[in-house]
């Protein structure tokens, strides 16, 4: 593994930062202590610092004359999970935990900022983006709304997420969709309540809701190209409270995941159509509220190529995976990739056994991969700035 001596020498400090961040997890848009931690270090490196974008976002800027402008992004928020790792540096804040490794991402980008401040990777500008609220709240979108891309007109952008189940010392990077679009829905099926023993006097919304759930599943199995991964999950059904009463209405809620914008449009239209038509057939009504939360995370071919070559320069060809299937989970870096060509890859976090998966109370970021993450950011910035293609 090609890690420079300067980055190797940072390792103890990186572990210390990661564990300090791990002890003090903060939820979406409340990352005040985390933001102060980041800003203090960026200043210490001698970088230009901007605070307050999307509330708790922090930007560090390295200016080194004329040249391209490359963005590197880390997410900084934690989750409302009570930690069960028993680590000596476990969360000190009850009910909150860095269970997605954003403490590690923040540390890798801080390390990269320090390394590049000391030794600029090429002519141009590097923008270090510490983004709040990746989990559910779409902090990337809010940063864009707050003018991120007007203040810092990026030519390309890169990010890494740790990936349990991918061996430590490996990176996965490919062009095209890597994470799915994330939508949510709520369907209200309104029938006519009646006595449980006299269903003919009402319109049973529960039987109808059951049919609808199945009709939606056949959108995935019968109407979408089988090679175009799509998920419709009804995750809640709420109705009724008495054994012998057929209720007036049923609420179904859930989530939809798609990889292609056209499929996303199709699924939304088809879910609406089937709900309305099937309900109408039974003289009931269906009201579907469909919310588009995150778009799919789609890597630009050229940026993915730059990132792949950067990873291969550090790890060798065999340790860089390019033929993996996308995840049907989602990532708000997608909002940035809608505006700026870029690439998002996975850095192996090691085994996911023993519940050490993302969003698990047993999860922990693997400190051993911190120098690799730093080196990747430095190498990808160098290539983005100099156009080096070796
Ligand atoms: Zn997460
Ligand atoms: Zn995450």
UniProtKB/TrEMBL annotation:
SUPFAM superfamilies: Bacterial exopeptidase dimerisation domain (SSF55031), Zn-dependent exopeptidases (SSF53187)
UniProt keyword terms in alphabetical order: Hydrolase
Record-linked PANTHER family: METALLOPEPTIDASE, PUTATIVE (AFU_ORTHOLOGUE AFUA_6G09600)-RELATED (PTHR11014:SF63), PEPTIDASE M20 FAMILY MEMBER (PTHR11014)
Pfam family, one: M20_dimer
Protein name per the record: M20 aminoacylase family protein
Domain of life, per lineage: Bacteria
Stretches assigned to the Peptidase M20 dimerisation domain: 184-279
Native source species: Thioclava arctica
């Amino acid at each position: 593994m090609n890690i420079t001596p300067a980055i190797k020498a940072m390792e103890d400090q990186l572990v210390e930062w990661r564990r300090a961040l791990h002890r003090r997890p903060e939820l979406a848009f409340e990352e005040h202590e985390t933001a102060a931690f980041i800003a203090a270090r960026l200043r210490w490196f001698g970088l230009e610092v901007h605070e307050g974008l999307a509330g708790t976002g922090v930007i560090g800027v390295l200016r080194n004359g004329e040249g391209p402008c490359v963005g590197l992004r880390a997410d900084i928020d934690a989750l409302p999970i009570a930690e069960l790792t028993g680590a000596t540096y476990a969360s000190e804040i009850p009910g909150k935990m860095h269970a997605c490794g954003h403490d590690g991402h923040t540390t890798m980008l801080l390390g990269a900022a320090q390394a590049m401040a000391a030794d600029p990777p090429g002519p141009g500008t590097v923008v270090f983006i510490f983004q709040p609220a990746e989990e559910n709240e779409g902090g990337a979108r809010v940063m864009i709304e707050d003018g991120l891309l007007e203040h810092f007109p990026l030519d390309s952008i890169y990010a890494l997420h740790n990936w349990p189940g991918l061996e430590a010392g490996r990176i996965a990077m490919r062009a095209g969709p890597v994470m799915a679009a994330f939508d949510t829905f709520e369907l209200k099926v309104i029938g006519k309540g009646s006595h449980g023993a006299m269903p003919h006097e009402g319109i049973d919304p529960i039987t109808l809701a059951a049919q609808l759930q199945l009709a939606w599943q056949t959108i995935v199995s019968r109407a979408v190209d089988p090679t175009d991964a799509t998920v419709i999950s009804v995750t809640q059904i709420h109705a009724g409270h008495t054994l012998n009463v057929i209720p007036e209405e049923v609420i179904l809620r859930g989530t939809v995941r798609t990889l292609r914008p056209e499929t996303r449009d199709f699924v939304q239209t088809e879910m609406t159509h089937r709900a309305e038509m099937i309900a109408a057939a039974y003289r009931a009504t269906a009201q579907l509220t469909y919310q588009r939360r995150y778009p799919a995370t789609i890597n630009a071919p050229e940026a993915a190529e730059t990132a792949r070559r950067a990873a291969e320069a550090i790890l060798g060809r065999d340790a860089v995976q390019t033929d993996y299937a996308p995840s049907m989970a989602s990532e708000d870096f997608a909002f940035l990739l809608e505006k700026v060509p870029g690439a998002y890859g996975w850095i192996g976090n090691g085994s996911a056994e023993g519940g050490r998966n993302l969003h698990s109370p047993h999860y922990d970021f693997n400190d051993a991969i911190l120098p690799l993450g730093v080196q990747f950011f430095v190498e990808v910035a160098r290539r983005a700035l100099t156009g080096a293609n070796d």
